[in-house]
UniProtKB/TrEMBL annotation, chain A:
Lineage of origin: Eukaryota, Fungi, Dikarya, Ascomycota, Pezizomycotina
Comp. bias intervals (Low complexity): 107-116, 357-372, 403-421
Family membership: Belongs to the SWC4 family.
Keywords annotated in UniProt: Chromatin regulator, Nucleus, Transcription, Transcription regulation
GO CC term, one of those recorded: NuA4 histone acetyltransferase complex
Protein name in the entry: SWR1-complex protein 4
PANTHER family listed in its UniProt record: DNA METHYLTRANSFERASE 1-ASSOCIATED PROTEIN 1 (PTHR12855:SF10), DNA METHYLTRANSFERASE 1-ASSOCIATED PROTEIN 1 FAMILY MEMBER (PTHR12855)
Stretches the record annotates as Disordered: 1-36, 98-139, 343-442, 536-626
InterPro entries with a match to the protein in the record: DAMP1_SANT-like, Swc4/Dmap1
UniProtKB/TrEMBL annotation, chain B:
Natural source organism: Podospora anserina (strain S / ATCC MYA-4624 / DSM 980 / FGSC 10383) (Pleurage anserina)
One Pfam family per UniProt: Actin
CDD domains: ASKHA_NBD_Arp4_ACTL6-like (cd13395)
GO cellular-component term (any): nucleus
Quaternary assembly: Component of the NuA4 histone acetyltransferase complex, of the INO80 chromatin remodeling complex, and of the SWR1 chromatin remodeling complex.
InterPro entries: Actin (IPR004000), Actin_CS (IPR004001), ATPase_NBD (IPR043129)
Protein name as catalogued: Actin-related protein 4
Length: 626, 473
């Protein structure tokens, strides 16, 4: 009789609503657990739940002989603690499990071995030899000490003088700082500095003097005073040991922090803390409620702003008046998808994230009314998502999606697209991590410099120098090298570090400018001479002609000649300056104003020299940048 | 730059910090002296700091069982009411009694003789479990010194003087030949017992109540505040209460009662008292009376839990309606105690509620009450640590076991510092409260990292007793 039978008898609905007793045969055929010695009827009493039968065991738990491990051996072992710093004078003993190095060795033999290796030279008496050297405590490694700054007498006098603090007191402070591991609460608590009466020798000499002399009363130092002094000393000693530019970042931070310690601010802070502590209950409650109120107000304004923004976004929605019928067919949608994909690709697929609402953008012409957009970036993201989801729609239900192309009806493709987009975005983010902004100090420390453009591959710095020469004619090169050798500089730098090459370029620029100028002034001189010679000739000719025509044409001819020269000179100047710099223009202006006489010409030449110089330095600086 | 100690959050937790070297912890107090091995949870030996002195034979006897009425018998205490050792000769004797005679510091038998390493019966298949024969003849001479094997960790009051401390190390090193010594202040150890390194320790002991701020395992000296408001003072308050009650309650110590009959509540006692053919010294009688009062404190006295003081209007009437407690004196007289049992302890909190005391030292001021002490202690330390301390208030000392004590303390503190989170840490187990400092010492002495701190014998010999000032800060 099974429970099923009972169900039948009582006319209860069977919980297996299938055919009546379909499984009886199967059940019996299924391999039942080995319930031997039990009548089938008895077994069936259990119904669907088979009777649990615990096999009877009539023997006791066996002793575990299998491992055959010997009993753990413990021994009272002596140990020292190296953190004590007394060379193992204190030997304490604790129980230790004997280490498993085979059978317990015969004491004498092992000790003898050890001693022969260890204590051969020491000549210790035999009785002491028997004692093994105790091991070091496992806890010695936890002994850590703070490092307080140290200074010598000289260093103190050169760096750490302070009107308020004597050296003795500073020493005392540092000693305390070391003893209490820089726990300022304790240092301040135990700070009890009594200055020594001045002059031990003088004391004995004139006793009555010192007895009447004012013994400086121990100063009451506040914790801020102590901290300020300590940080002052520590920061200065840090800088003495390692100039600031060589410090590592944490070191520099520490240094800066210690330098910027402001006891006054600290005092004020403590005053505030004190006030906070001594608030009454009502005040505390009031403050709390005020804070809550502020929070609520802030939250409300935020929500308000949010709503307003949303509203504006809706108002911003541009209506489309182009025809959307072209997108109402599947081919049109495919087309749209293609264009969207391509535009997305063009935008380097910065991020493809589905927005909270799927909304094709207005310029694509697909209508969308229900969803608002927050910003253009989001808009583009949502385009892509909608495109992909639309794609899925398209293949899944061709007939229905023509009506609702933009609704995110099917969540799975959207989420798949989102996942893909996420993955892509993550990859992009990894490729372009946020570049950390370096501070001035860090740039200095790490030697970071910025370049406009770098050629590919490594280059030698002296090649850069050589390149400078290659633009010049042989004559000029010679002149430049001459000028450099006058300055005792080798034409090729011995050690072209970045700083040296930069300086060299500046120098080189100056030298070329000088050389150019010289060339120009030479030429001008030559021209002036020619002109003068011409003039003399003309004068001579005029002298003859004057007798014939008079002095009318004289000025004209001179002016024309001068103008010529100026134009030529200006051309030269531009050549030298490679058409850069405003100096050239002003110079030309100047010449236009004062055409003619040779005096003005030389002045212009001089002026030009200045402008050329500036132009050259400009150039060199540009090169440097490159 | 500097290698700073690791903050507790990054310290490795997988290392078991214990390393027991069978150090001994000795915690002397005014009422009791506790002694035991470091690493155990309770002191093995707790014996009264009072001891008997037999004037006729000029002999000292120690321990409870020696305190019975006998001729020429005086009760003395080697500590004074400040919990500072006064009689060093007696202190040495009583400590030695506690450590050597009673604690029975084992003079280790050589393993060859202690029977633990006898060869097992051959039945065990001939396994060789023999321990190495460690009999070391060199060690035998050390056995003659009483404590040559055991480092000693002693406790002291936070206000102990340097001279006292030096004396302590001298005794330890010279008389007992300890290999190492350490002196620690009781509030620090009580904080350790509560598992705190930074705490405000309120120790309501027998002769003193003290409040001490502990910062990172060290006493902040400026914060140490103490007052006589402790168990003994409470006893004097109870005496005043007995005096004031109608009819007067007579304290008859147990040893004087030979025979008693039950009487109705409030009726005079019907008991026959013993007569002794020798004079009972007043000190012995006072000691025995104190025991009766102690029982009264334990079973009747309760602290008004607050909120508000007991004297605040309405509270007394309310207390009168609370169920009272009956206390039967050793002579059989008994009485129901109702609101008076709150009044007895109220002086600890409210100086106006204290019973007027006959003696000068029994009078207390506002600053000597428990809230006054805590306020003074906190005011004298840096403001930055105050919140941390108030979040770790450790209550210890057996007088703090009065019912309602921690409730009242909590109310007082939250009223005093409404804007700070106050958290009390009072051990639930009465023995942990009674032996707080000893337990802390037991923890400290069995820590592996502590062993670098001990003042070793060699250091003592090189530097003299002054080293204790330098090291045990």
């Amino acid at each position: 009789m099974t429970s099923r039978d009972v169900h039948d008898v009582l006319n209860l609905p069977s919980d297996h609503s299938g055919a009546p007793r379909p499984s009886k045969k199967q059940k019996t055929s299924a391999p039942r657990p080995n319930l031997k010695g039990l009548a089938r009827e008895v077994q069936n009493l259990g119904g669907d739940n088979p009777i649990a039968i615990v096999p009877e065991v009539n023997f006791f738990k066996k002793r575990r002989f299998a491992t055959r491990k010997p009993v753990a051996k413990w021994e009272l072992k002596a140990f020292t603690n190296s953190a004590r710093g007394d060379d193992g004078a204190l030997v304490l003993r604790h129980w230790k499990r004997r280490t498993d190095d085979g059978a317990p060795p015969v004491e004498g033999a092992q000790d003898g071995d050890g001693q022969q290796q260890r204590g051969g030279g020491e000549g210790t008496p035999a009785s002491e030899r028997r004692e093994e050297k105790p091991e070091d405590s496992a806890f010695a490694k936890y002994n850590v000490k703070v490092v307080v700054p140290h200074y010598t007498e000289d260093q103190y006098h050169s760096n750490l003088q302070n009107n308020d603090w004597t050296k003795e007191e500073t020493d005392y402070l540092l000693e305390l700082a070391k003893d209490f591991d820089l726990r300022w609460t304790l240092i301040w608590d135990r700070y009890d500095f009594t200055p020594k009466p001045p002059g031990g020798g003088g004391d004995a000499a004139n006793g009555e003097d010192t007895s009447t002399a004012v013994v400086p009363a121990p100063k009451q130092r506040s914790m801020e005073d102590l901290k300020a002094r300590y940080y002052e000393v520590a920061a200065k000693m840090m800088a003495v040991q390692k100039p600031a530019q060589y410090m590592t970042r944490p070191e520099f931070e520490l240094y800066e922090m210690m330098q910027n310690f402001d006891p006054e601010q600290e005092r004020k802070r403590k005053q505030f803390a004190l006030n906070t502590l001594s608030r009454s209950k009502d005040e505390a409650r009031e403050e709390e409620s005020l804070l809550l109120e502020v929070k609520r107000i802030l939250a409300r304004t935020e929500r308000f702003n949010e709503e307003r923004r949303e509203l504006y976004n809706r108002l911003d929605y541009p209506a489309t008046d182009s025809d959307i019928n072209s997108f109402k067919t599947s081919a049109g949608l495919q087309n749209l998808l293609q264009t969207l994909m391509s535009t997305d690709k063009n935008k380097k697929r910065k991020s493809i994230m589905p927005g909270e609402g799927v909304s094709p953008s207005n310029n694509s012409g697909v209508p969308n009314s229900a969803v608002s957009e927050t910003n253009p970036a989001n808009r583009r993201e949502s385009i892509a998502a909608s495109a992909t989801s639309n794609n899925h729609h398209h293949h899944a239900r061709r007939d229905s999606d023509a009506r609702t192309p933009a609704t995110p009806a099917d969540p799975t493709p959207t989420s798949a697209a989102a996942a893909a987009a996420n993955k892509k975005k993550g990859g992009g983010a990894q490729q372009q991590p946020e570049r950390r902004k370096l501070t001035q100090q860090e740039e200095q420390v790490y030697g970071v410099s910025y370049h406009d453009r770098l050629g590919s591959g490594p280059t030698f710095r002296y090649e850069k120098i050589n390149k400078l020469y290659s633009h010049k004619s042989g004559q000029q090169q010679l002149r430049i090298t001459n000028a450099l050798s006058e300055l005792d500089l080798p034409p090729r730098l011995v050690m072209p570090t970045a700083a040296v090459t930069a300086q060299f370029e500046v120098l080189w620029g100056a030298v070329t400018a000088l050389v150019d100028l010289r060339k120009m002034s030479d030429r001008l001189d030559g021209e002036i001479k020619i002109e003068e010679a011409k003039k003399a000739e003309r004068d001579r000719a005029k002298g003859i002609a004057a007798e014939k025509e008079g002095g009318k044409e004289k000025g004209e001819g001179g002016g024309g000649g001068g103008g010529d020269g100026a134009a030529a000179a200006a051309g030269e100047g531009e050549k030298a300056g490679e058409k850069t710099g405003e100096g050239g223009q002003t110079k030309e202006d100047g010449e236009k104003k004062r055409p003619g006489s040779s005096g003005s010409l030389t002045a212009a030449g001089h002026k030009r020299s200045a402008s050329v110089l500036s132009a050259a330095s400009d150039k060199s600086s540009k090169r440097q940048k490159k | 730059m500097a290698q700073q100690p690791l903050p507790s959050s990054v310290q490795p937790t997988d290392v078991y910090g214990g390393d027991e070297v069978s150090a001994i912890v000795l915690d002397p107090g005014y009422i009791n002296t506790r002694a035991g091995f470091a690493g155990e949870e309770m002191p093995k030996q707790v014996l009264p700091s009072f001891y008997g002195h037999i004037t006729s034979s000029n002999r000292d006897v120690f321990g409870d069982q020696a305190m019975y009425p006998r001729a020429d018998f005086e009760i003395r205490n080697y500590m004074n009411r400040d919990s500072v050792v006064e009689d060093w000769d007696a202190a040495t004797k009583i400590w030695e009694h506690a450590l050597v005679n009673r604690l029975g510091i084992p003079r280790p038998t050589p393993p060859s003789k202690n029977g633990l390493n006898n060869k097992p019966k051959p039945a065990a298949e001939g396994e060789d479990v023999e321990m190495a024969d460690e009999a070391d003849l060199d060690e035998t001479e050390n056995y003659e010194k009483p404590m040559a094997e055991n480092p000693l960790l002693m406790t002291e009051a936070a206000w102990n003087s340097p001279k006292q401390r030096e004396k302590a190390i001298e005794i330890c090193m010279e008389n007992w030949a300890c290999p190492a010594f350490w002196l620690s202040k009781t509030p620090v150890l009580a904080a350790f017992a509560a598992g705190k390194a930074t705490a405000l320790v309120l120790d309501v002991g027998g002769s003193n109540t003290s409040v001490t701020a502990i910062f990172d395992g060290m006493v902040l000296k400026r914060s140490v505040q103490r007052s006589p408001v402790g168990g003994v003072w409470l006893s004097s308050q109870i005496r005043s209460l007995f005096e004031a009650s109608e009819p007067k309650v007579e304290v008859v110590p147990t040893f004087m009662v030979e025979n008693k009959k039950p009487v109705e509540a409030g009726q005079p006692a019907d008991a026959r008292l013993k007569t002794f053919d020798f004079q009972i010294s007043p000190s012995f009688r006072a000691y025995e009376e104190e025991r009766v009062l102690k029982e009264f404190k334990e079973s009747v006295v309760e602290v008004w839990r607050g909120p508000g003081r007991y004297l605040a209007p309405g509270n007394e009437d309310y207390a009168k309606n609370l169920p009272g407690r009956v206390f039967e004196m050793p002579d059989g007289s008994n009485q129901m105690w109702r609101e008076q049992r709150f009044k007895a302890a109220e002086g600890m909190w409210d100086d106006n509620a204290a019973f007027p005391s006959a003696t000068e030292e029994g009078k207390i001021t506002k600053a000597q009450t428990v809230p006054g002490l805590i306020k003074a202690a906190l005011d004298s330390i840096d403001v930055d640590v105050r919140p941390a301390l108030l979040a770790n208030v450790v209550v210890t000392g057996s007088t703090s076991l009065l019912p309602g004590f921690t409730d009242r303390l909590n109310h007082e503190l939250t009223a005093m510092f409404p804007s700070v989170k106050v958290k009390l840490h009072a051990a639930g187990l009465s023995s942990e409260r009674r032996f707080g400092a000893w337990i802390g010492g037991s923890i400290l002495g069995s820590l592996g990292t502590f062993h670098q701190m001990w003042i070793s014998r060699k250091e003592y010999e090189e530097n003299g007793p002054g080293i204790v000032e330098k090291r045990c800060k």
